[in-house]
Amino acid sequence: MSILKKISAKLEGMAPADRQIGQFIVENPDQMLRLSSAALAAETGRSQSSVVKFSQKLGYAGYQELKLAVSEAKAQEWQAPTGMIHGTIEVDDGYLTILQKLLGSKLQAMQQTIAVNNELDIDKALKALYEARRIHLAGVGASSLVARDFSYKLMKLGRNVLHDSDSHVQMANASTLGADDLLFALSYSGTSIETLRIAELASQRNATVIAVTGLQDNPLAHVADIRLYTVGDEDRVRSSAITARDAQLMLTDLLFILLIQRQPDANDYVHNSEAAVSVLKAKQLS
C-alpha cells in the first residue's frame, strides 16, 4: 500500500491535528513535496513539531523520510516510456531487460531527487554559491567524480574553485577556508569519513557548508548549514553508486543552470570558454 493510500485509510481515526496534516498531504501531494516541515505546518495551521510527530507516527524517522515515501508513491503514477521497466536487475536478465530496468531506475532516481528538494533550499544554495569568495568541492569515490564535473562547470562561470580527488589535498584546502568561503560536500551515505572530517573542518573555519546527501539521518547533514538531498536506487540496480551518482549530477546540473540565470555575465564567461577551446582544437587540426 502506498503511503498516500495509507494516510487516506487512516484519516478518520486520526486526532484532529494529524487529520488536518494528513488531509493536506493526500489532497496536495505535489505541493507537499515542495514544502519544508515549517511551511507545511503553516499551510495546515499546525506546529512544526506536529508535522514531525505525524511523520513518526507513520513509522518514519522524520519529515524528510515521509517526503521520500510520498515521492515514491507519486513516482508510481508516472508512466514510463513504452518498453521501459523499473525493477531489480536479476542475474539471468537479458541485455534488453537490463537496459530497460537501468534506464527506469535512473529516471526514477532523478525524478525523486528533484521532488524532495524544495525551492527555498535550492535558492539558499544558489545564494551561497553566488556570493562565495571561494568554493571548495569535496567528495570521495563516485561523489568525487561528480564534484570534479561540477568544479569544471563553476570554473566556466569564472568562479574561484578548489577541487582535488585526493582527500588529503581536500583537507588541506579546507584548512584555508574562511567566513566568506563555501564547502560543497557530496556524500550519498553522509558517513564517508574523509568528507565528514573536511566538512567539520570547514565549519570550524566558519565557512558555509552545503551538503548533498541522502534523506537518511546522517552526520554530514548535521554539520551542514544548507542541506540538499539525493535519492538513489542502489538496491534495485545492484551496482556501484550508479543511480546515486546520476541523482547528484541532476542536482548539480540544475544548480549550474540556475547560476547561469542568476549571474549577469555568465553567458560571456561560457562564450569565452567555448571560444578558447575552439582555438585549441583548430591548432590541433592544423
Automatic annotation (TrEMBL):
InterPro entries: Homeodomain-like_sf (IPR009057), HTH_RpiR (IPR000281), RpiR-like (IPR047640), RpiR-like_SIS (IPR035472), SIS_dom (IPR001347), SIS_dom_sf (IPR046348), WH-like_DNA-bd_sf (IPR036388). Keywords: DNA-binding, Transcription, Transcription regulation. PROSITE patterns: HTH_RPIR (PS51071), SIS (PS51464). It holds the Pfam family SIS. Signal peptide: none annotated. It comes from the Bacteria. Residues 125-265 form the SIS domain. Residues 1-77 form the HTH rpiR-type domain. This is MurR/RpiR family transcriptional regulator. It comes from Rhizobium mayense.
